Amino acid sequence: MPNASKTGSKEQTLPKQQQPEPGYEYKMDPPPVYLKPGYKGADKLLGKVAIVTGGDSGIGRATAVAFAHEGADIAVVFREEVVDAATTAREVEAAGRKCLVIQGDLGQESFCRNVVEKTVTELGRLDVLVNNAGEQHPQDSLDKISAEQLKRTFETNTFAMFYLTKAALPELKKNKGTIVNTTSVTAYRGAPTLLDYSSTKGAIVGFTRSLSGMLAKEGVRVNAVAPGPIWTPLIPSTFPPDKVKSFGSDVPLGRPGQPWECATAFVFLASGDSSYFTGQVLHPNGGEIVNA
Hints:
about 290 residues; Rossmann fold; seven-stranded parallel beta sheet; 7 strands; about 40% helix; globular
């Protein structure tokens, strides 16, 4: 398991770095910590099957691995990062669970249908859907956000949730399953250089709250997690080196979070521990107070 900066320390140790989009976890320095040191599962998801989009790296990998330690088989969905996806699969299998790796573009509705069909065929059922895949492309002016960028960001971050959830609902209703969506602190306080990204994350909050009301009588719970500054491949692949160096230093805890510090929120919302939660958003963001 990779090691990283001290959890709980205010010391900022990120070196300057940059890599091309979409970003690769195996190239990050230091590597993110995707499993809590000493993590011991408690069978909270024993016998369940989960789809985790963007499960190759970052918060998605941490969630997939934590779910595996809690007893779930996992379908990891990713677009480009083959090496990272293989690492996630190895970690899931090392926890004694099955891992199905599916590559493709979640912005295409036909692919989303295929993800669900393949998962149910090969893993036998579907109980948890984690809509986590996302992309961001910082721009300092509205004029620089092209129609192509706007469309691509919404397709990946928001449209994919509609497509995949629609395809998954028959299985989730049958199994009284759960849906956990990844939004962001930017949905609550904005981010001037991430205008389109922040807009998609605001849409996800509305999607979560509205869908939870629609599905409550069906026994399907829908919640979300709104991370703050988490050390994932999005950071060195979309921000300049100087911003990477200071990333996360402006929150009360004074440091970026590690992916595992979000994954525990996903475990909670996916499991029976959160049986009285629906339409809610959890905020692992280093202490920033937002209007939740």
